[in-house]
Amino acid sequence: MITNTSLEYKGDLYPSKVVSYEHEGDSVFFNTDNKVILKVTILRDSLIRFRFTTKGYFSNDFSYAIDKTQLHGYNFLEVTEEETYFQIRTSKVKCKIQKADLRLSVYDLNDFLILEDELGFHWEESYEYGGNIVKMSKYSKDGECYYGLGDKATQMNLKGKRVENFATDQYAYQKDQEPLYKVVPFYIGLHNKQAYGIFFDNTFRTFFDFCQERRNVTSFWAEGGEMNYYFVYGPQMQDVVTTYTDLTGKPELPPLWVLGYHQCKWSYYPESKVKEITSKFRELQIPCDAIYLDIDYMDGFRCFTWNKNYFPDPKKMVAELAEDGFKTVVIIDPGIKIDKDYWVYKEGLEKDYFCKRADGPYMKGKVWPGECNFPDYTNPVVREWWAGLFKELISDIGVKGVWNDMNEPAVMEVPNKTFPMDVRHVYDGNPCSHRKAHNIYGTQMARATYHGVKRFAYPKRPFVITRSAYSGAQRYTSSWTGDNVATWEHLWIANIQVQRMSISGMGFTGSDIGGFAEQPTGELYARWIQLGVFHPFCRTHSSGDHGNQEPWAFDEEVINITRKFVSLRYQLLPYLYTMFWQYIEEGVPMLKPLVYYDQDDTQTHYRNDEFIFGNQILVCPILEPNAVGRRMYIPRGEWYNYWTNELFIGGREIWIDTKFDEIPVFVKAGAIIPKYPVQQYVGELDFDELTLDVYYKNGKENSAVYEDAQDGYDYKKGRYSFLSLRSIGKEKELIIQLHKEGKYETPYTKYKINLIGLPFKVSEIEIDNEKIEFDKINFEQNKFLLVDKEFSELHIVGE
């Protein structure tokens, strides 16, 4: 036998010495004598892309994650050659690339070392599949912490963890279980009060090791593709998250009703059951805006069909639900039943739109309808076809939103729960196997769904929700954290997952309130509602296999708690809408873990439970049974207890007493919080005043209120109202300044201003330098006043 030694296992391979470099525009190319090329691209002064190839040339540069509508540019770029390294300098950072082996390090302009390669880039040839297993290792600094990576069911700080990214249908997953439904290969590092980010844009199965295998080394690797990552410099975590979110894109504004409360179950049917549920919400005066139909609304689980035994006239039902304020949301899965009499299947077959195995036959797998074929959503022609399928659901029947499930993609009765890895995909003109396309399959389905719903919902705004997602999916869809469990541990997990998703660019996320699998106690459900109303997406959902999970499935006390907290969410809708506006405009996450809020306070680095809702409300859920209070950390500054208006000085851990119908909620001193009256659904009431809760602070604080028509696209033409509010507190004076932008005229005419924490008795009130008599503004001493909304400055003077 003759052995070809060139095919023997080579182990890890490394770049050799640099033999040449070229500077072309925003990119610098470094060539080694073993054909490795490093391409360094400066997108912004604080955003640098590092892309390696081992074959002497680069393949087509294509990414589903990057928002191609974003414009990038830098202020300064200088490339210099030193004896042992090259240096690339921007106005924010310096990057040094070693001539000997391409190892690189990044410094700030004061020569502080932010990030440094350990082994740096290396690779291993994959003889089984072809291509390379690409690897990167970097030194971890003393005390360095790591955050991000999407909805991982583990501690907020990832130090000491190893995680895996491979979109997986993980029913009833547990704490620390890997992998889960979503793939967000982006993390934030923090050390010495300096934050940076790494986005490893590789859609193959990827792994991240945060000092688990080796104590002072962080590494990440992929089972194929390129070593292609982006470095994002802070130094504030806020800057890192905003830059990453800009890079991968932001959603458009949802209709306001989407931010209300939603009710779902597997499954509500027949029509009489759906109406029984919706009627009960109205009877009990628990606000609710959306009712969901799971797979049983379909004819034999065939997508885009209706079971006429359960729903004989879906258009009439949807219209009647709408009259009562309920928007109907339906599920659509990717599996298309193999049935020659099924119109969707016939179209897909005739047009050759389904995924194929490597040797030609269609990919076949079992899901709810039985044996199915699956559209190749990486084909733009297929996405266009799929979008067109929504015409009847949206235009004709009146469905308001679509829920994509099982799109990891999930396949039943196979060991790996998904497609075989030899399935082929078009990948927008970059043909590949499922090894590369798996992690983006769900996102491309959601993308096609979004374009269909948007097309047929116009002139209203679309609503799409997905279970599986890859970085950038937030441009098209909201998400939830998958098939969780009705346990206290999962309440803890849900709290962390939604915070983590928020700083991972996917802010519009929630969990199945109460747990999808198993049955919660009334206490657990109540505690979950109390947390869930502070998540951007708020929906109760359950499997239905273990009993009912509507608020009235429990006792009267739980019904009252649900009503209280859901009503609070509806009061806070203008605050929540403003949070969303800041998310889409500036990339600011809607939920902020304490470490994001104050990274310089090391006490925040390992906090899991507390988070900032928006910019000025601090929330800490109750996460264990029989609690009469809990210890929690109050971040630095001054904070008012929302329930008692007691003022607390932060920067310390304290005990907070709580009742069963409360959780610790605090408001930042100086904040001005907008509130609507309680409505049973968005748009139910016409009201003539907006409430502004003003929390006194000796000092200055900025707040904002964004409003528009609550749906449609006029806001993109300037028809919105953005109020910039400033509170200036002095020893015996409170000044409220207001500046309005935008052409939208709000329907109310007055502000009801609630005064909270005022330390003096009011003797005089001036509006725009004119003294006002108390009875003309309904002034109740140190409590509230009612003023016309057309003012610029309000002075409240004390004795």
TrEMBL record:
<dbReference type="InterPro" id="IPR033403">
    <property type="entry name" value="DUF5110"/>
</dbReference>
<protein>
    <submittedName>
        <fullName>Glycoside hydrolase family 31 protein</fullName>
    </submittedName>
</protein>
<keyword id="KW-0378">Hydrolase</keyword>
<dbReference type="InterPro" id="IPR013780">
    <property type="entry name" value="Glyco_hydro_b"/>
</dbReference>
<feature type="domain" description="Glycoside hydrolase family 31 TIM barrel">
    <location>
        <begin position="251"/>
        <end position="579"/>
    </location>
</feature>
<dbReference type="InterPro" id="IPR017853">
    <property type="entry name" value="GH"/>
</dbReference>
<dbReference type="Pfam" id="PF17137">
    <property type="entry name" value="DUF5110"/>
</dbReference>
<dbReference type="InterPro" id="IPR025887">
    <property type="entry name" value="Glyco_hydro_31_N_dom"/>
</dbReference>
<dbReference type="InterPro" id="IPR048395">
    <property type="entry name" value="Glyco_hydro_31_C"/>
</dbReference>
<keyword id="KW-0326">Glycosidase</keyword>
<dbReference type="Pfam" id="PF13802">
    <property type="entry name" value="Gal_mutarotas_2"/>
</dbReference>
<dbReference type="InterPro" id="IPR030458">
    <property type="entry name" value="Glyco_hydro_31_AS"/>
</dbReference>
<dbReference type="GO" id="GO:0016787">
    <property type="term" value="F:hydrolase activity"/>
</dbReference>
<comment type="similarity">
    <text>Belongs to the glycosyl hydrolase 31 family.</text>
</comment>
<dbReference type="InterPro" id="IPR000322">
    <property type="entry name" value="Glyco_hydro_31_TIM"/>
</dbReference>
<dbReference type="Pfam" id="PF21365">
    <property type="entry name" value="Glyco_hydro_31_3rd"/>
</dbReference>
<dbReference type="Pfam" id="PF01055">
    <property type="entry name" value="Glyco_hydro_31_2nd"/>
</dbReference>
<feature type="domain" description="DUF5110">
    <location>
        <begin position="689"/>
        <end position="757"/>
    </location>
</feature>
<feature type="domain" description="Glycosyl hydrolase family 31 C-terminal">
    <location>
        <begin position="587"/>
        <end position="673"/>
    </location>
</feature>
<dbReference type="InterPro" id="IPR011013">
    <property type="entry name" value="Gal_mutarotase_sf_dom"/>
</dbReference>
<feature type="domain" description="Glycoside hydrolase family 31 N-terminal">
    <location>
        <begin position="38"/>
        <end position="209"/>
    </location>
</feature>
